[in-house]
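FAQ

Q: What does a record look like?
A: Structure on top, sequence underneath. For example:
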């Protein structure tokens, strides 16, 4: 059994009734129609995924007709709900698992995987080697070489699913160091700076506004 990841397939997300929008337009995808996009995504998926394989979808699976697409795609599907995953309970039951917000797995490895729709600035055990896989951004969010984090959306993976082994290979090249960062003393200074800033903001917020003489007169007359 192989494990794959993907996000933001947006199956069936065509233009609106006036002919505007749709994912092909919004994400600048290289397809003439949403139907052409759907067929390419399905063909790419089924070329890699066999019936016994697991596919984790980090949100935004399909705009409509979810059952139709689920029936055509190989493998067991695990869904992290995204911004556009609007479907009834009967359809949600067709997924092997459905998670609202986040799922945590290790996939038989030493690393913990934190699967989300949107990227996280920090995540559970991110300072101890856990890996955040996400979608939503359609490749518009910068990735950093010192973070164990990756966009698995189709827009940045040539409209194909991403195998677990490939993710392991990429993460092994990252310049990540466990608990890399500031010393405890430096952290204490930064926390105090933030607390002092917030105290000044609160003081300004809670200070009564001083009125000019003309404003006071207008208030008394009013």
């Amino acid at each position: 059994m192989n494990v794959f990841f993907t996000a933001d397939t947006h199956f069936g997300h065509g233009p609106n009734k006036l002919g505007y929008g749709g994912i092909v337009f919004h994400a600048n995808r290289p397809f003439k129609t949403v139907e052409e996009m759907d067929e390419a995504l399905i063909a790419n998926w089924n070329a890699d995924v066999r019936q016994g394989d697991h596919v984790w979808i980090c949100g935004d699976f399909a705009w409509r007709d979810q059952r139709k697409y689920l029936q055509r795609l190989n493998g067991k599907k695990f869904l992290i709900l995204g911004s556009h995953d609007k479907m009834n309970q009967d359809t949600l039951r067709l997924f092997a698992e459905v998670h609202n917000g986040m799922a945590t797995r290790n996939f038989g490895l030493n690393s913990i995987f934190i699967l989300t729709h949107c990227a996280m600035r920090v995540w559970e055990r991110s300072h101890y080697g856990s890996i955040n896989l996400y979608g939503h951004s359609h490749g518009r969010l910068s990735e950093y070489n010192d973070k164990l984090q990756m966009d698995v959306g189709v827009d940045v993976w040539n409209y194909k699913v991403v195998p677990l082994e490939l993710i392991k290979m990429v993460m092994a090249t990252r310049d990540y160091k466990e608990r890399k960062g500031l010393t405890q003393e430096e952290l204490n200074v930064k926390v105090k700076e933030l607390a002092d800033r917030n105290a000044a903001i609160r003081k300004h917020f809670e200070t009564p506004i001083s009125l000019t003489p003309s404003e006071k007169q207008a208030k008394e007359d009013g």
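Q: Is there anything notable about this one?
A: The chain has a mean pLDDT of 91.
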